[in-house]
């Protein structure tokens, strides 16, 4: 986001926080659904995006235009939050769409937080990503932007029915739509990270050759927490092909101490 966009987005998130202080998890979920529905409308209607970000229009005119579209169709809280969003300044029309989608995700995460389910949602998103990655046919089907979205959503709903929290299922649907213009796989990863951030945690993706013991996980999490100055949420993948050692990725930082990496480095050295 540009600095202008970040400022406008921050005003909307502040509005969301102040107007939902006493809202229940269910009420927040409704607001999230409505904001995400508006994000989908903005995705489909480029002319509307341009009209709602037109710098030649006053903030009041843009707010009135949005109000005429939403009148009687959404909760008052949703209308207030989205009005705050369109009254802001935007560097490009697409940034309004991205911000609206992100705001809907924020509301959905707030709903899960209010229900004390954030940790479970984070874990369910990660584990579903692992399931998809382990099934190439499923990965291709869900990640194909050319396939009808409704068909992919229905497939995910059938796969997850009764197995995950409601918020998890909705976030997976957001990933299917290509959250922030990302691929399905990248969208899932980003949503895992945003869920962790909502708990003030950093995500560490860990790859090992065999399952870590509870004590080993605790030691690794403690070491990383000390290094990054905040709690770390480990996402562990078991991959026997690394042979031994540990690979850890936190954001753009990669610490690869696997035997596989050492063997590859040795091969490259000999090749020279």
From TrEMBL:
It holds the Pfam family OSCP. Keywords: ATP synthesis, Cell membrane, CF(1), Hydrogen ion transport, Ion transport, Membrane, Transport. GO terms for molecular function: proton-transporting ATP synthase activity, rotational mechanism. GO terms for cellular component: plasma membrane; proton-transporting ATP synthase complex. It is found in: Cell membrane; Membrane. Gene3D superfamilies: N-terminal domain of the delta subunit of the F1F0-ATP synthase. It comes from the Bacteria. It is a peripheral membrane protein. This protein is part of the stalk that links CF(0) to CF(1). It either transmits conformational changes from CF(0) to CF(1) or is implicated in proton conduction. F(1)F(0) ATP synthase produces ATP from ADP in the presence of a proton or sodium gradient. F-type ATPases consist of two structural domains, F(1) containing the extramembraneous catalytic core and F(0) containing the membrane proton channel, linked together by a central stalk and a peripheral stalk. During catalysis, ATP synthesis in the catalytic domain of F(1) is coupled via a rotary mechanism of the central stalk subunits to proton translocation. HAMAP family: ATP_synth_delta_bact (MF_01416). NCBIfam families: ATP_synt_delta (TIGR01145), PRK13430.1 (NF009967). Belongs to the ATPase delta chain family. This is ATP synthase subunit delta.
